[in-house]
Hints:
The chain is an all-alpha fold. The chain folds into 2 domains: 2-104, Helicase, Ruva Protein, domain 3, CATH 1.10.8.640; 110-142. The protein is 59% helix and 0% strand. It is built from 6 helices and no strands. It has helices at residues 2-19, 40-52, 69-84, 89-100, 115-141, 154-165. Helix 2 packs antiparallel against helix 3 (69-84). The longest helix is centred in the last third of the chain and has 27 residues, at 115-141. The model is unreliable at 23-30 (pLDDT under 50).
Amino acid sequence: MELMLRLASLATVLWLATWGLSVPPTYAASPVDVFTFNSIEEEARYRRLIAEIRCPKCMNTNIAGSDATSAQTLRVAVHRLIVQEGKTDQEVLDFMQDRYGDFVLYDPPLSSKTWFIWLLPVGVALVIIGFIFRLLRKTQDLAPPELDLKGLDPATQARLRDIIQD
């Protein structure tokens, strides 16, 4: 009986160890892109551009840090535009903006569609500054209240005035 348990345990361990070898190659695919560049400068431009372009699917992640299919497609497009077509950085950014809109740029241009994004922080800052000035003015306007001291003897009135002034 003990021999049977040991054999079953050994068979289970061997099965688990070899199961990892039978996984189809699609599961072991690397999410890292492998591109070739003509120079180190091209590769540096590529890395800088994919860090500047936002993934349209991932909301606030650049295409360098996203594993989404759309980000992979954009990385391939950036590589093609730089290496094969010899585009400048601005031409690559313009291409991405024309195709995917202002959202793909972390620094969108000031236009009729994006003015709200640019002016919102200024408006919030002005509101906060106005609120602070209003609070400061209210604290400066606070003066000791005038008391009706009629009916009190002069010594008590003088004592109360001294307390209020302190």
